[in-house]
Amino acid sequence: MPELSRRRALTAAAALATVAGVQAATAPSAPAEGHRQNSPQAFDEVYKGRLIQGRPAARGGHHHHGAGYAVFVDGVELHVMRNADGSWISVVSHYEPVATPRAAARAAVDELQGAELLPFPAN
Predict the structure, then answer these.
(1) Which of 122, 123, 100, 121 is nearest to 52 (CA)?
(2) Bridge partners, residue 56, by sequence
(3) Which stretch is the leader sequence (predicted)?
(4) Which domain range does residue 105 map to?
(5) What mean pLDDT comes out for the span 68-87?
């Protein structure tokens, strides 16, 4: 078997990158409006002794990041944002994306460890 030279390795890597780029460019993508149609359901529950709520919200203010959805912990709004891949993050657990706003609220309660959620200042 011939020894793999640096030139052959780079050529193979370039070919693979080209194929991957072509596949990504030709893959069907969901329209941007598509993920808004999958709006999460409202919820209202007690989680670890804290009242967490979520519901569709009217557009405006700083809610635009949350794709028209508002989340509250003990009546205080938890600023949430929907990522391009459909996952959700909050101002409390920003580096741990979760699948739903309910999961974001639960993660915030876990992270707060009993501390109060302070209101997020609007721009």
Answers:
(1) 100
(2) 69
(3) 1-24
(4) 34-112
(5) 94
pTM of the shown model: 0.64
User: Strand 50-56 vs strand 88-90: parallel, antiparallel, or unpaired?
Assistant: unpaired
Q: Where are the beta strands (DSSP E) in the chain?
A: 43-47, 50-56, 69-73, 76-78, 80-82, 88-90
| Inter-residue contact 65 to 89 (CB < 8 Å) | no
How far, in Å, CA of 120 to CA of 62, rounded?
A: 10
Average pLDDT over residues 55-62: 69
In the prediction, which pLDDT does 66 show? 53
Residue 24 burial (10 A CB sphere; 0-12, 13-18, 19+): exposed
What's the pLDDT at 68? 86
CATH number, residue 107: 3.30.1880.10
Encoding tokens for residue 28?
Answer: 């069907």
Number of domains making up the chain? 1
The sign of the torsion formed by the CA atoms of 94, 96, 97, 103 equals: negative
